[in-house]
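Example (one chain per record):
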Amino acid sequence: MGNGKSATTRALVLDTALGMFRTKGFAKTTMRGIATEAGVSLGSAYYYFASKDELVLELYRESVAEQHALASKALAGTTGLAARLKAALHAGVDALTPYHQFGGALISSALPPQSAVNPFGEASSQAREDAVGIFAEVVEGAKVPPFLRAQLPELLWLAYMGVVLFWVYDRSENQRRTRTLIDGAAPLLAKLVSFSRLPVVRPMVEEALALKAKVQA
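Predicted structure:
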């Protein structure tokens, strides 16, 4: 397949799948149905995406790229860890908003450890690194204790994962509660980071970081 036609067909299959996820739900959407709706053969659909999980993984990649674009724009000229973190978290929710209707199904597909869309799995490692990179940009433009700087981006990404889980189950209008959570949590997290400088707090933080490293080893 030519590169141009191949990219167009791939995008068509993905867009069709996402549209069907929204209208029919994740569980009721099949690869055969996606192929039929897109006007391509079933073999062509499987050529680009081996399963619905791979489609969701591509959605994850695209949402991270969209979050990065939105966050980079919002971070320009924004100072202070709280404000920068708030901008990145809101950017993440903005990027995911079109898919809120089937967010619960996405979480269900991501829960099994062997799932291709598990955000902690090997298959999603590049998307995860890119997502952590967004929070590295947040940290780079803020005052952060040197001993915490290298570890903080991943910790902030983990906090973002918590926000995403809350967002999935948020049934308030336009996910208002999630926005309220972000507006309140970002300053709180920034204060906790600032407190980590204190002699009475730093040893506990360092102990927690050491435990994290041991668990991940």
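Caption: The domain at 1-50 is CATH 1.10.10.60 (Arc Repressor Mutant, subunit A).
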